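Q: Convert this sequence to structure tokens.
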Amino acid sequence: MKEVMEKERKLPVSAACDVLVAGGGIAGIAAAMAAARGGKKVMLLEREYALGGMATLGLVTIYLPLCDGEGNQVIYGIGEELLKLSIEHGAEANYPSAWLEGGSREERIQKRYVTQFNPHLFAMRVEQVLSGLGVEILFGTLAAQTVVEDGRITHVIVENKSGRSAIAVESVIDCTGDADICHLAGAPTVLHGSGNALAGWYYYQSKGSVHLKMFGLADVVPDKDEAPKAAPQTGEADPYKAAKVESIGNFRFSGVDGAALSKSVVDVHAKMYEDIMSHHKDDESYLPVTMSTIPLVRMSRRIAGAYTLDDSEERVYFPDSIGMTGDWRKRGPVYELPFRTLYCREIKNLLAAGRDISTTDRMWDITRVIPGCAVTGEAAGTAAALGSDFAALDVAALQCKLRDNGVRLHVDEI
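A:
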């Protein structure tokens, strides 16, 4: 392949902020909320033109459990706040009445703290919340490069319709889902071992009703040498029953290769069209209402942080825990999330949240979903409101602030 030299040029510094959040998915929303509530000037970059990421634009509209499956709530704070916001105007399915209306422990065991929400209403409501907190949202904006001096990011270079410019920052929270800022800044990163399988969820109408079609494997992807597995139906009581989610091809992609991402989307759209037409042949009222408008990437690239969490560390106490998460796939497990999974020592003022935190591949499947993204996003935003040298941050002060905001940190607090 031939190479060309890009001309060096001066870029205008178009803005400055205390905390730059890259990525407007659930982790980015939670991080921006927490940092703004901590008194910081926050800018949120989102390359699409709506917030919510996979949860809204991807139509993965299942707000997975905030509990351990044994009747105990594990996630509070912004994680619970966003769940309530997502169904402010009513749940699409699985309204968690046992949790929101004072149900008994037996009722909470029977039905986990899970719900299904309308993606469009949720996207608009979180935008209103962030705007009300003074967060400046830059839609259609891509983080293209970073300027790093003495182990600190001083500027993030962005591109949008205004062109290419730089934003001066005190700290950065990478919520891109692909550790893009970490990669650009030279922080150590790791690619997921198995890659991603094809998926493209869509809503369809049939006989006067609208339904969500979980088309393709977006939740449980097998290892390369295994047969595809069906994703669990999160609305069912334990044990979860397999949903009717079919595999739609053997193509796998990393999530950080532009050509492969484009191919995955083209392939998904072709398969989706075939699926819709096959149903339409038997039911003329079967028509698409909306489809996922971003690739359904589950796990791609993450930071290699100061600590890497594994799924074997169930109910392990961590002195620097910033919250907990259950296992959305089964009942019982609870994991404390160490603050050290959010930062590396190479770039002092950089945090990761959501899919970008430091976990093993097996643990990644647990922390990548909405509840874990909200927990780590809130912790990252709260930390960024307290300082910008994260390896040296007063963790006790961070934990005190999180507790003040209703977060429970350790398993013995459940």
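The first strand starts at residue 13 and ends at 22.
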